[in-house]
Design a protein that fits this description.
Number of domains: 1
Strand content: under 5%
Distance between the termini: 61 Å
Oligomer: single chain
Helix content: over 70%
Radius of gyration: 19 Å
Length: 231
């Protein structure tokens, strides 16, 4: 590790990071314990949302106590793109699969926002001074350990998935600064579990939604209004 990299590590506030992670892990372990003791909770939508509260609360407390700030906001560089990113998929999935599916999509995005506020909104921003491969690896390891419930199998494929997600969603965040866009990417992956991708209509919609996001964020630019002075 060269001197420049060591200097970057020193500049990182380790106490705020520790505060964030301890809170995130504690709440995660609490929800796992509750779910194991009361299995019926796993079917409750509010309880499912609560499992993502740890990173959000941890980030909020760390930023409040240690006066940390982030440039990553709810809508980032574009309010209308962030809003459309969330609304269009919910409407489309609601149309093709019923409004219950549309509601499930919104629930998945909400859960994604809770996690992304912590992992990207706080943690990635705190580590932004490091080279990309370093902060991606650090976030992946912390995210991976946070997810473990001690009953999981196939840990290596799961770690690789989180590594790819840390890079991909992290790139989205640095490009757009939009927590809603990151939450949508995170949420749609969770939403697509339970064999939904085996349905051709859903698969086509899934791919189309992601393509739609890429187009509006990376290829559509509304002209800025120019001030015209009367001469």
């Amino acid at each position: 590790m060269n001197k420049k990299t060591i200097t970057r590590f020193i500049k990182i506030g380790f106490v705020p990071l520790l505060c964030f992670y301890v809170i995130a892990l504690t709440l995660r372990l609490t929800t796992i314990a509750l779910a194991n003791k009361y299995p019926m909770l796993r079917e409750n939508y509010l309880f499912q949302l609560s499992t993502g509260l740890g990173p959000a609360i941890g980030a909020f407390v760390a930023m409040a106590v240690f006066k940390r700030k982030t440039e990553y906001t709810l809508t980032g560089k574009s309010v209308w793109k962030s809003v459309v990113t969330i609304l269009v998929p919910c409407l489309v999935f609601g149309i093709i699969g019923g409004w219950n599916m549309g509601g499930m999509c919104l629930l998945a995005f909400t859960y994604g926002l809770l996690e992304e506020y912590g992992w990207r909104g706080f943690l990635q921003y705190e580590l932004r001074g490091l080279p990309m491969w370093q902060y991606v690896l650090i976030i992946t390891v912390m995210w991976f350990l946070w997810h473990l419930d001690f009953n999981q199998r196939n840990l290596l494929p799961f770690f690789v998935l989180l590594l790819f997600a840390s890079w991909g969603i992290g790139k989205v965040m640095t490009d757009t600064h939009s927590l809603l866009f990151c939450a949508a990417f995170h949420g749609i992956v969770n939403f697509s579990k339970h064999g939904l991708l085996a349905d051709t209509t859903f698969l086509i919609t899934f791919v189309s939604v992601i393509a739609f996001w890429i187009v509006i964020w990376y290829f559509i630019y509304l002209p800025k209004k120019q001030n015209i002075q009367n001469r």
